[in-house]
Design a protein that fits this description.
single chain; alpha+beta; 5-stranded mixed beta sheet; 21% strand; binds phenylalanine; binds zinc ion
Length: 881
């Protein structure tokens, strides 16, 4: 295992390799504990490289069995092995040469799930970012592209299935009880896209005919018996393939596309060339076991990994600093896909909620980093919401600035110019500059400056002159390593609304670049003046969330209410409701904190109830409107001296007030949203369920009785309704008999399905209050928990630390001490999992001082422990800094 080295890798130090890797030939002799890997690598020295430079290959947890140079055993004096490398000297100046490396690895002992490991008896690999070096010594970096042939030899009875990237070459028997298969991937790829799977799995098969008429075999491999549960994923795959052809002109490029679902996986899924490997949570679904959210996640992740075939695989990253080049762009693509398949506005609202609660929080704390970082100690810790989600927003801003046509041209140029290459963010941006003639220099700061821009907005209306002036100011708070920032190019979509809600059209606009409905804020302070405005307008700014910024704009409740009722951008309507709710909630939290009375707000309540009851709006939107800002959102808005208990009480009081006034409305909604037909996971049906269940939650608030939720639990004929009813019971009435009965009924019904039991875990982990920790430890000791499976750990311990503010942040600090113990435990087996759990502590400095002191002490226990992994060391150091 890699333990702390403290070494910093800098973008500025990037250098190409001295050697080109022409071909890779791998032979695996699979064995649970002693797998033999033979790697035949053909290299030649680059013309401009130092003729004396040695070949340095990365390696980790490997036993070197033999080493050949051009088929001959290498003299011991010629090479050197260290715990993380193999260095070979005296290599030819220009002619190609062959290095053959045989290593021994132990898949069964691989608990960190990087490299070759076993999941439920299936051999599988995970190589991004630096897992391939745990298979053999290799130039394990993304700018080394090569063509791979893979031979797999394994016991035939236990592993009827032998898979790798590319196209199947052939297979045959191989000695007693064994067989082998050979695969060839004609597309040059970096080692992080390598994959191998061997085992005994069931399969779902289909085909897809591409744009140019080629037939591609589609296969999804799952545990035997689970085949029917892969049907939705297969459907999502075919829709993704078609969409990528239609919208981006991207066609698939091999004869076969495979997905394998495994139960032990550190992330969501992995885009290995032609052989995606998935966390089974993001493949398996049926109405009885999957929620609408699960269906939406499956659709999005299947699409995301498929889209990587062009954005990530055909064009990959020069180095790991460029991670957003593939991830930000691919998230943008999967967002657009889901928007096209579902409701665009509702999808956008969900994206922005997620961005604010995760990415804005990251950007405001000790782990803040640019979309393209300039330095890292552990690359695993940079698979972040900043790289992914903010990276996607940066791509979206390019589209907003250029408009759809030029954006498409720029992307086409990118695909054409960089196909087969390992590219950089600069290469990407240059394509848009080239097709548009625009200068993207200032815009590129979005890649390099961390922190969420704060935009101040003030407006003035001059009735006599018929002008409306918007004064904008931008500032970006200091973040680690970046005390001072430069002004950025911020594209803000806008509309001016008249008193009746209709759009007002100015005759001229001065003060800066304005293209159609976008104000381009480029200076630190900038005034835009709109002429020909006869009445006081209401400004709707940052429509559709065109820029990932925070606006500081005190609009009157009347103005917000006008936007909430009349904007034709639904996102902006939802935003106006949020802008009304947040000040009410923060004021309530402050009141709760100092013991004064919490005063609900009548305008907010009425506006919300009006939207909730408005049948002309789609149910999914109304459900979003009814979901007021979370406790975490409120805490972030307050910013310091947070008392999570006060925030909780405040929010509950406001919700209770809305529930009481709206009881009739919610009862009507609850009845009218009942879907009597057969279950369908489509977006419209899911939206009805979302609205119905939002109403159920308010009804529980209003009635203070578990009866309705218990009835809903009994009546549920799908997992969305069942788990929502259980969640309402657990959140509102944790000690009620009805709740205990529902929990045990759920348990006895689903105890054979660990993925469903994860819902049971996370619902219980989220129950607020001081008893939460005792509940967690009891569940950990129970029969369904498995500390070796990342999904279980995230469902129980992750839900507690990330999503139960009152339980985790209990005032005596026990929550933090518990987490510290868990971090140290998991760090020994799976450092990536441990490091990710630890990020739940990143906002500790925002807490009131008593809790902050406990949090700090717990972090110091971690920091001073022996033998920390590089992963946890990096996070704990940054959080404490
Ligand atoms: N590249 C994967 C994705 O975003 C994520 C991933 C990273 C998976 C590292 C595993 C390991 O699609
Ligand atoms: Zn990705």
């Amino acid at each position: 295992m890699r333990t702390e080295t403290g070494q910093v890798i800098n973008l500025a130090d990037y250098r190409p390799t001295d050697f080109v890797l022409e071909r890779v030939d791998l032979t695996f002799e699979l064995d649970p504990t002693e797998t033999k890997v033979e790697a035949r690598l053909i290299f030649h020295r680059r013309e401009d490289a130092d003729p004396a430079a040695p070949l340095v290959l990365a390696g980790e947890d490997l036993v070197l069995v033999s080493l050949l140079f051009d088929q001959m055993e290498m003299e011991p004096g010629r090479y050197h092995v260290s715990p993380d490398s193999l260095t070979i000297n005296d290599l030819p100046k220009s002619e190609p040469f062959e290095i053959t490396i045989t290593t021994m690895i132990n898949p069964e002992a691989n608990t960190q799930l990087m490299g070759l490991y076993r999941s439920n008896g299936v051999y599988c690999t995970q190589c991004e970012a630096e897992g391939f070096r745990r298979i053999t010594y290799f130039p394990d970096r993304p700018d080394v592209l090569s063509v791979y042939t893979v031979n797999i030899i394994a016991d035939k009875a236990a592993n009827p299935l032998l898979l790798s990237n590319g196209n199947f070459l052939g297979g045959a028997g191989y000695g007693e009880g064994k067989h082998f298969a050979a695969w060839f991937d004609p597309h040059p790829k970096p080692s992080y896209l390598f994959a191998l799977v061997a085992g005994d799995l069931g399969v779902v098969e289909d085909t897809f005919t591409t744009l140019s008429g080629r037939e591609v075999a589609l296969k999804i491999y799952v545990e035997h018996g689970k085949e029917p549960n892969a049907a939705y994923a297969m459907d999502a795959l075919k829709r993704s393939m078609k969409w990528d052809e239609e919208v981006f002109g991207r066609e698939y490029d091999l004869d076969i596309f495979m997905i394998v679902a495994v139960s032990d996986f550190n992330f969501g899924a992995m885009e290995n060339k032609g052989l995606n490997i998935f966390n089974d949570k993001y493949i398996l679904a049926d109405p009885e076991t999957a929620t609408d959210q699960d269906y939406a996640n499956i659709e999005a992740i299947v699409a995301h990994e498929y889209f990587h075939n062009w954005t990530g695989n055909r064009i990959t990253c020069r180095d790991w600093f460029q991670l957003c080049l593939k991830e930000g762009l691919t998230v943008y693509r999967d967002h657009e896909f889901s928007a096209d398949q579902r409701s665009r506005a509702v999808k956008r609202i969900a994206e922005v909620r997620h961005l604010r609660s995760e990415q804005f929080a990251e950007d405001a704390g000790p782990l803040a980093h640019p979309v393209r970082p300039a330095a890292y100690k552990e690359i695993n810790n940079f698979y972040t919401t900043t790289v992914y989600e903010k990276g996607s927003e940066v791509t979206r801003m390019i589209a907003t600035i250029l408009g759809a046509d030029l954006f498409k041209k720029g992307l086409d140029l990118y695909f054409e110019r960089h196909d087969g290459q390992a590219a950089t963010v600069e290469d990407f941006v240059q394509c848009f500059a080239d097709v548009s003639g625009r200068d993207f220099t200032q815009f590129s700061l979005w890649y390099n400056q961390s922190g969420t821009p704060q935009i101040s907005v003030e407006t003035a209306f001059d009735a006599a002159a018929k002008t409306f002036t918007v004064n904008l100011g931008q500032s970006i708070p200091p973040t680690p390593g970046q005390p001072v920032k430069q002004p950025m190019h911020i594209p803000l979509k806008f509309a001016l609304l008249g008193a009746d809600g209709a759009g007002l059209a100015p005759t001229t606009i001065t003060g800066g670049d304005v293209s159609e409905d976008v104000l381009h804020l480029t200076l630190q302070n900038q005034s835009f003046t709109f002429s020909g405005i006869a009445e006081q307008p209401v400004l709707s700014l940052n429509r559709g969330f065109s820029a990932p910024v925070t606006l500081h704009f005190s609009q009157s409740p009347e103005a917000l209410s006008l936007i909430a009722r009349h904007e034709n951008d639904l996102f902006s309507r939802w935003q106006a409701l949020t802008d009304m709710a947040l000040p009410v909630l923060t004021a309530a939290a402050k009141a709760a904190g100092n013991g004064s009375e919490i005063v609900p707000d009548a305008v907010l309540k009425q506006t919300l109830l009006t939207v909730a009851a408005d049948d002309s709006l789609e149910p999914a939107f109304r459900a979003q409107a009814l979901t007021i800002p979370s406790e975490m959102d409120i805490a972030r808005a307050i910013g310091s001296d947070i008392d999570p208990d006060a925030v909780h009480r405040a929010r509950q009081t406001i919700l209770g007030d809305i529930a009481l006034t709206g009881a009739d409305t919610f009862a009507t909604i609850y009845q009218s949203m009942q879907d009597k037909g057969a279950f369908s996971p489509d977006a419209a049906s899911a939206g009805k369920r979302a609205l119905k269940n939002a109403a159920l939650s308010y009804l529980a608030h209003a009635s203070k009785s578990p009866t309705a939720a218990a009835q809903a639990f009994a009546d549920a004929d799908n997992m969305t309704d069942l788990s929502q009813a259980l969640s309402v019971l657990a959140q509102h009435f944790p000690d009620a008999e009805e709740t205990q009965a529902a929990l045990s009924s759920f348990e006895s019904r689903f105890n054979g399905n660990p993925l469903v039991m994860d819902k049971w875990f996370s619902i219980q982990a989220g129950i607020p209050g001081e008893k939460a920790l005792a509940r967690i430890t009891a569940l950990m000791a129970g029969p369904h928990f498995n500390a070796g499976n990342p999904n279980r750990v995230r469902a129980l311990i992750g839900s507690f630390a990330f999503s139960n503010p009152t339980g985790f942040h209990r005032p005596d600090g026990e929550g933090y001490r518990f987490l510290a113990g868990e971090i140290l435990f998991h760090d020994k087996r799976n450092p990536q999992l441990a490091a990710r759990l630890l990020t739940s502590m990143r906002s500790w400095r925002m807490l009131e001082k008593n809790r902050a002191a406990h949090a700090k002490a717990a972090l110091e226990t971690i920091s001073t422990a022996d033998g920390l992994s590089n992963d946890v060391r990096d996070i704990v150091d940054r959080i404490l800094e």
